## 1
Amino acid sequence: MSKIIIIIITIVTGSIIGKSGSVIAEMHSKYEGVKIKFSQNNDFFPGTGDRVFSLVGTQDVISNCAAEIATRIFEVHFLFYYLNLSSHITKPTYHHSLS
């Protein structure tokens, strides 16, 4: 069993949890054996306003589940920034390596 800890800005947690936990429930059924836990609304990573998610399971399962979470974060970030829905999110930066 492996474990991944993911620190997520509060503004996108709803897209990962889903209404009444629907997205989490979907991920539990989609990624068999994964255990997903997240901090309570007012329980933040020290020194931040960010929530803590943990994924426990086999490396393949948590890797795939983490990839889906990352995609959801990117999608929400994109919508908020590019559609000017929030002033809390900064423009993403990308670093390219020229080989």
## 2
Amino acid sequence: MQPSESIDEKRNFKRVPMGCPASYQVMNTPTKKEGTCINISAGGVLLECDYRYPVGTKMNISLTPDRSVVPYFSAVMEVVRVKPSSNHDGFQLGGLLISEKHLDSLGVHWDA
């Protein structure tokens, strides 16, 4: 990355601010948890939650937007980045949206 080039300029997809409720469930665990979807793009999600998950964690997420920019949907994401929340209460998880085909190639099976 060039010194003057920002991360936003390197993104493949534009991020849409959301600030909506999100529920998520780490694969192979029985418990659903709640968080907030900070933003979303065609390739990823920024999820704010109370727990720190390691990079590589796969989880099913469901979003319930309060506006019609993005309809309700459910997807599988893989955590690719973790940092403390800007308010220092919880964590922000940068997630890559992955397809069922990708999961099959990893040998992971998911029953949402």
## 3
Amino acid sequence: MDQTGTISVVITDTSVLINLAHTGHLRLLGSTPGFRFLLSEEVLAEIQDPAQREMVDTVILNGFLALTRIETVGKSHSRKLVRRLARGSGGMILFP
């Protein structure tokens, strides 16, 4: 929370989570005041390594990272762009 009491929302992508898991720093998501960390179902599905997935699932269970859904976007140019990207990356673009 900053001086005005605002909490910043950070939407994570797959590479950030994998790097934090690989280096043993996922716990930082729970010790960063003023920030709320979110990830989409698509990003979570991209984490294929079972050990990394278990670490991310633990961080979610501890409430340091929240799973959220991507809402459907009706703009055709957004859909075309998402088709060209990995599902997780496309999900990052379509977050409100």
## 4
Amino acid sequence: MVKFFINSDTQFHQIIIGHCDNEHLKKIIEQHENYYIFYRVIDLNRLERAKSSYLEHYKIFEALKDRNIEIASKLTEEDIENAKQIILQNFDQYTFSKIG
């Protein structure tokens, strides 16, 4: 189930990025795609977080569909902050536990 969420999450991000008019952003994301995949797995490795992320993305999608850029932007910032916090909380576990 988590694998499904990770694949869906990746597709969601690709669609959003694919429709932005910022070529510089697209290039940066393309250059760092492997890192994004690694951290996406860390962020979504628990079913409850995967569900939470799905709901966050659904709200972003609804705001974009309604062309409510202010709400979409706010929700996107919250989504990024939530993912960042999960990654930071689990960074040592996923990075250093594989070494030793």
